[in-house]
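Open question from group meeting: does this chain pack into something compact, or does most of it stay loose? Before anyone orders reagents, we agreed to write out a predicted structure and look at it together. Recording both the input and the output here so the notebook holds the full record.
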Amino acid sequence: MLPSRGFRLIAFAMGALWAAGAWAAPPADLDARVEAAMEEYGVPGMAISIVEGGENVVAKGYGVRRLGSSEPVDADTLFVIGSTTKAFTAAALAILVDEGRIGWDDKVADHLPGFQMYDPWVTREMTVRDLLVHRSGLGLGAGDLMFVPRTSRSRLDIVHALRHIEPATSFRSGYAYDNVLYVVAGQLIESVTGQTWERYVREHLLEPAGMPRSTTDVADLFANPDRAQPHARLDGRIRGIGRQEMLDEAAGLPQVIAPAGLLASNANEMGRWLSIQLGHGALPGAGEDGARLFSEAASREMWTPQVHVPIHPAPAPIAETTPQFSSYALGWGVQDYRGVKIIEHGGAVFGMQSVVVLVPSLDVGFAMHINSEDGVVLKGLMYELLDHYLGAPRRDWVADFGAFKQARVDAALDALDALEADGKARGRSSGKPLLPLSGYVGAYADPWYGPMGVALVDGRLRIDFKRTPGMQGTLAHWRFNTFRADWDDPSIEPAYVTFGLDAEGKVDRVTLKAVSPLADFSFDYQDLLFTPE
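Structure tokens returned:
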């Protein structure tokens, strides 16, 4: 009997994928393509790893480590890999699960004394798994201002502050990406093992994985001369447009957030990480019965979808990137592209961006890192590589993502223009604050962030976020009781600061909102509510 039409279509598709991926070489013009995209968008340096069938077929650097220097990026140049670190934190917990020291569904409070969420019931029910899957009920990026762009807090301080962050939704009812619970996961590892996250990951994950140059420690990163420097565009009306400039790396990489996004690695060693992931925990070259970093059961657990990620159809010209399903697992996103399951995660941290992509059905994976915030290049090359391995027609995805970004930038600038025009129409430029400037001066505090002060210095209002070193700025009157905060450090997103008055005309609350419609969600000003101390 002949196979059914459906069976024949499936067999054909599987055969096509195997032919396209299993023995496919990297694109013949990969170097030229990468260099052209970098030049077009002004990316200083880039590192790429590609693994096929367990073999690292590409481990290469492009460009320079920093603008104004001729020092090249090579396969050993360290890049901070941002939130792709989350998969390492999940793997560290998986090792503890394999050892029987914790369980994925153990209660966090049983392993981490002092852990407390806003809601006592959520405190009792929160599991180790819940720390990793963005379904806690916290809002998008909630609590990030405790450590973005820097902080004087310890990891334990952040755990204790967590109880003051009000949820945005009910527990486990939906998806909202956060970093703060990965910081909690790092503290849980220390509570269980007696080792800091940094030491545990180094000794139990990086060293056994054959990744000795990769580091969990900012001080070690800064001591390595072969490292990429961060860059960004800060002199335009909004972040992301204008002139590329090098950032002060010491000003935006707080050690405390390492479990959420601060591991540093290179093209050679990320190739090993890709091989381990595609090998379901087996160390490269170990064979079927060889050494493992974590068990196959742990690998399945980390790749199993836990929460649905809402799908928002992408507009033209990138509409074809819209997945049919999208979910989050343990430190990984799981979705489809052209009908094929993709395991992936992106990362962005202070002047650097990364993406890690696995295609298990083809035994192919790749990682890319840049030392700037020009994500158009990363996303475009990501889809060009996926199309290559899936045997899809060639397409200039870099140009398509460039057009998509430009449309978003244009819309954001139009929104700022409209706001400015509205302000002028309402007499903002000739208006005055409702109080004398001295009336806004005071010491304020937010329950989860902590103290903030407003002072009058040389006739101008100055704002100071006390727990964020260097986060001071000048308040310029906007309208009524709202001022615009422009920070001394231009890498910090400007904010509107609104002073609310009580019945006696005294300040009884202060709220904030990011100025830029495209501000990174980690500047979660909208979650703050300062009141007089």
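Observations to bring back to the group:
The longest strand covers residues 340-349.
The domain at 437-532 is CATH 2.40.128.600 (Lipocalin).
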